[in-house]
DNA sequence: GGCACTTTGTGCATTCCTTCACAAACGCCT
DNA sequence: AGGCGTTTGTGAAGGAATGCACAAAGTGCC
């Protein structure tokens, strides 16, 4: 009773790797290659080939035994699985340093993600022009989400305002949130969240660097 | 023969949560609280209390049964475990939009991380002043790393230059790398890496949003 | 001082993820 | 057409992380 291979029940760990595979495929395609083995693609993606194959198996079989994967076909398959064959209008809340940088950052524009709304709580910033957009007040968020079909919100506010921004996005009808604020957000189950936190990443690196340094003092080289 | 509780053998998943606990502790301390239970702290950190306790147990016992944790003492313990009671000079490679934003971003300055060097391969940018620093040429990297004691490098270059930047950082003697470039880096074992990738995060959210949307069409609300 | 209450620290079960090992399936060469 | 080499897809094993349940250890009241 499943017309499509069914995108449900794909392990979370696999989902986070699918974008990596897609990028590896683009790199391969740029080299003019039209067929690729799981081994080659895995190297580009920085994973083991068996992991790549198992991950792809969750989307259904699209390789040919003894040959490999058709680059174009697999690209289409991943693009479809990730939902990237449609436009994803994005709203950014919080127009400080980070928000401005994100609005200007080209990385968002690739593959269907278009920043279509910039918002800030501070009325001193509202009305300011940033790139091709004008900063609007938070009160206009629900209307914008409805009119422009915004499904993804980005939180670039200070930590203290993040929960407020999240609540506003959720009640406006956004389905997924990417937050840069270093706080745990309380959200309804149905809203997906991803968190990017520079300070945390640096902390982890500090731990690892110190750790390896200690290990080097104790253990023998080699 | 271990004078300290030994910071080795801490699960990777735990390490990534330690910074979150530290931040939760700061939030608690700001409220003027001096003692906190694992339950309260876990809520602030967005995890289960049992997970918090198990994570902390890897650092040794620092709570008091029946009472909870001393905020100051636990903060000190985590700070020490993460290696944050010393300065961490940081170099940023790649002074495009992202690199400039990172150089200006205050989040780096907190807790010992100081951006002390900005580098770019492009000689047209070298010499330019950004904030309090001047962009220097890649050739000066080894000297800077040695003189300033730089242990952490940040890669903010385009994907195509990322491996080059990584090689330069590694041979200059950097111990850990935070990269924003969406490519798998090939690095020696001893160098720690963390990757932050905005496009990947958006892709994952697109997948989840589409997925939930499909599920909502099929399943019943409740 | 002893008892009731609270909260930590942890062995154990469970679930999730990764890796291994190998059969199934394909192209190619003769 | 048949056999050989290659590569996929996957069951099963192994390992890691999470959550449960409870004993151990402390405080405070009577």
Question: Would you tell me the structural class of the helices and strands of chain A?
Answer: alpha/beta
Which consecutive residue ranges of chain A, at least 5 long each, have pLDDT under 50? Answer: 1-7
Radius of gyration of chain A: 21 Å
DSSP summary, beta strand count of chain A: 10
Q: Give the number of domains of chain A.
A: 2
Q: Report the portion of residues of chain A in β strands.
A: 15-25%
- State the CATH class of the largest domain in chain A: Alpha Beta
**CATH homology superfamily name of the largest domain in chain A:** NAD(P)-binding Rossmann-like Domain
Oligomer: homodimer
Shape descriptor of chain A = globular
Major beta sheet summary of chain A: 7 strands, mixed
Largest interface: A-B, 67 and 67 residues
CATH topology of the largest domain in chain A: Rossmann fold
N to C succession of SSEs of chain A: HEHHEEHEHEEEHEHEEH
Distance between the termini of chain A: 57 Å
Helix amount of chain A, in percent?
40-55%
CATH architecture of the largest domain in chain A: 3-Layer(aba) Sandwich
Q: Tally the helices of chain A: what do you get? A: 8
Averaged pLDDT of chain A: 91
Question: Which strands sit side by side, in order, in the main sheet of chain A?
Answer: 6-7-5-4-8-9-10
């Amino acid at each position: 009773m499943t017309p499509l291979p069914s995108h449900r029940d794909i392990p979370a760990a696999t989902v986070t790797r699918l974008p990596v595979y897609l990028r590896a495929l683009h790199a391969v395609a740029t080299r003019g290659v039209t067929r690729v083995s799981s081994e080659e693609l895995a190297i580009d993606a920085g994973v083991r080939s068996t992991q790549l194959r198992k991950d792809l198996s969750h989307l259904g079989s699209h390789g040919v035994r003894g040959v490999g994967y058709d680059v174009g076909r697999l690209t289409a398959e991943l693009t479809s699985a990730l939902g990237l064959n449609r436009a994803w209008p994005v709203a950014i809340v919080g127009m400080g340093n980070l928000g401005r940088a994100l609005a200007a950052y080209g990385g968002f524009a690739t593959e269907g993600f278009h920043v279509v709304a910039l918002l800030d709580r501070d009325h001193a910033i509202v009305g300011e022009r940033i790139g091709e957009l004008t900063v609007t007040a938070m009160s206009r968020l629900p209307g914008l989400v409805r009119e422009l079909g915004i499904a993804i919100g980005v939180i670039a506010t200070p930590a203290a305002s993040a929960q407020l921004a999240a609540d506003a996005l959720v009640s406006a009808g956004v389905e997924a949130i990417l937050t840069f604020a270093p706080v745990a957000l309380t959200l309804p189950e149905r809203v997906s969240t991803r968190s990017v936190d520079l300070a945390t990443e640096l902390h982890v690196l500090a731990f690892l660097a110190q750790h390896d340094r200690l290990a080097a003092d104790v253990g023998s080289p080699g």
